[in-house]
Specification:
The protein is an alpha/beta fold. The chain is 36% helix and 20% strand. The strands form three sheets. The protein has an eight-stranded mixed sheet with strand order 6-7-5-8-4-9-10-13, sandwiched between helices. A three-stranded mixed sheet has the order 1-2-3. A two-stranded antiparallel sheet has the order 11-12.
């Protein structure tokens, strides 16, 4: 509601601001305006705020303009993609999963939470992009060519810059990325760094994920580390969606013979032993590596590699749909 003095100021507002007006008050020369910005993205909200302030500054009796914005809270699920060790293809899987989920009709965003070794900007062809910030000092994600908005430490640091931060600083960087203005994104895929360190703990404590996807190669050493990652999520009471076996089987491009340099079936067997779902396997394929280096993820196209990612994405989407309530850790 507006007070009497506030009502006299309403004609000065642009039409869009009047249509979204919740209250307008004037006291001691300060006009306080509350707008409902439901459905507007960060840039539209900024433009609306500037227009309202410019309009009211010319009104009689107004020395200062304060704008508050309110909107609907949007439930947003987080799927954390983790591994116990590096070198298992987690970042490539995360990027392709985000694209596959978006192609399946889920509004999906991607966070590169590997603060010290970000790679998603290269995989998603957004190197050199710099995010803007809203009036509320929240980052606006970079829109990738594949229709997936994303943020990475690579978008905030200089190219090639070493990030030599202690744990609390890395945790704060993660919060800045996850707590950005994601607009109408309903699912956030978070590519965690390998291991079970500070970033993972910050993720669990501040932005409790709806579920975790564990990535491992078939070999025993990788599976041992994957078990440690699962243990961390268990301690944080985050359900494990399932396990993905990456680099599973290599088809020789010359003779067509299939070999298993990292073993075969280890992740599927481990999933069964630990009582977790097996989400699928992704082959060891040079085309996947080349596409990641070139910034053209294969999940954006067609073919057997794209179908491998799409099948895993479908299982994750089904898992989310079967949950009774979405995660309320983010809004």
């Amino acid at each position: 509601m507006s007070d009497e003095q506030g009502k006299q100021l309403e004609p000065y507002l642009p039409d869009l601001a009047r249509a979204r007006l919740q209250s307008l008050r004037l006291a001691d020369g300060a006009a306080t305006l509350v707008l409902d910005v439901s459905g507007l993205d960060g840039l539209e909200r900024d433009r609306l705020e500037v227009a309202a302030k410019d309009a009211l500054r010319g009104a009689p009796g107004v020395k200062e303009v304060r704008v508050a914005m309110m909107g609907e809270k949007r439930a947003r699920n987080i799927i954390a993609v983790g591994s116990g060790k590096g070198g298992v293809g987690k970042s490539t899987l995360s990027a392709n999963l985000a694209i596959a989920l978006a192609r399946a009709g889920i509004r999906t965003g991607l966070v590169d939470a590997d603060i010290y070794g970000p790679s998603q900007a290269r995989i998603m062809a957004t190197e050199g992009a710099r995010p803007q910030a809203t009036s509320e000092k929240k980052l606006l994600p970079i829109m990738s060519e594949w229709g997936v908005p994303m943020l990475s430490m690579a978008h905030l640091a200089s190219p090639g810059q070493a990030i030599a931060w202690r744990g609390p600083m890395a945790g704060n960087a993660l919060s800045q990325l996850v707590d950005a203005d994601w607009g109408d994104v309903e699912l956030l895929v978070v590519d965690l760094p390998p291991g079970t360190g500070d970033v993972q703990l910050t993720m669990l404590q501040r932005f409790k994920p709806a579920g975790a996807v564990i990535v491992s190669t078939p070999q025993d050493l990788a599976l041992m580390d994957a078990a440690r990652a699962i243990s961390l999520f268990d301690q944080g009471k985050v359900p494990v969606v399932g396990i993905v076996e990456n680099m599973a089987g290599y088809t020789c491009p010359h003779c067509g013979e299939v070999s298993d340099p990292f073993g075969a079936g280890g992740a599927e067997k481990a999933a069964a032993e630990m009582g977790h779902a097996f989400l699928g396997r992704v082959p060891l394929d040079i085309a996947i590596r080349q596409a990641s280096d070139a910034g053209t993820p294969l999940a954006a196209g067609d073919g057997p590699q794209a179908e491998a990612f799409a099948a895993i994405a479908r299982r994750i989407a089904t898992w989310l749909a079967n949950r009774r309530q979405p995660s309320e850790a983010m809004a």
